[in-house]
Design brief:
Elements (H helix, E strand, L loop, with lengths): L1 H19 L6 H19 L3 H7 L1 H11 L5 H16 L3
Length: 91
């Protein structure tokens, strides 16, 4: 479980870096992704990954990914990896 949490943290860091390089995202999308990131970080910090599943964060990330898949392929790839990492944690 610890390895999976570390991988999730790494992917989130990569996602944050990619978001910083993507000024073409509209403010609403950026705000939604940052909110999700904060919720994931909070659940990880509290060592309660099950809280992530209860809030449906993986589903929210999937929805965001589908919204801009064609325009932002690198973000889509990272979000997909984060979603997979959440799934591996049983979230």
């Amino acid at each position: 479980m610890a390895e999976r949490l570390e991988r999730l943290k790494q992917l989130l860091t990569e996602l944050e870096a990619e978001l910083a390089k993507s000024p073409v995202l509209d403010a609403s999308t950026q705000a939604n992704l940052q909110k999700l990131r904060g919720e994931i970080d909070e659940a990880i910090a509290q060592a309660q990954p099950e809280a992530l599943g209860e809030s449906g964060l993986a589903k929210q990330l999937q929805s965001q990914m589908e919204a801009f898949e064609a325009a932002h392929p690198s973000l889509t790839n990272l979000i997909s990896q984060v979603t997979n990492a959440l799934g591996q944690l049983g979230i």
